Amino acid sequence: MFGIGTPELIFIILIVLLLFGGKKIPELMKGLGKGVRSFKDGMNGLDADADKKAEPSRDSKKDDDKA
């Protein structure tokens, strides 16, 4: 994973613990999880909007049939 081995990962975790403390880490992870969920919901919304725009409207099909 990105060339990071076990010793480096342990070192990074220790630094994070020293900077934020044990009580703040769950709050940070909760906020990170909410941010990721919001991002995914936004991406799904964009996909749904793109699908709606790709479908021809029913009104234009009726107009084409009459012509």
Question: TL;DR?
Answer:
The chain is mainly alpha-helical and 67 residues long.
Radius of gyration: 24 Å
Instruction: Count up the domains.
Output: 1
**H/I helix tally:** 3
Helix content: over 70%
How many E-type strands? 0
Strand residue content: under 5%
The averaged pLDDT comes out at 80
* Element order: H for helix, E for strand: HHH
Description:
The protein has 67 residues and is mainly alpha-helical. The chain has one domain. It contains 3 helices and no strands. The chain has helices at residues 6-20, 24-54, 58-66. The model has no long low-confidence stretch (mean pLDDT 80).
What's the layout of helices and strands?
Layout: H1 6-20, H2 24-54, H3 58-66
Features of the shown structure:
mainly alpha
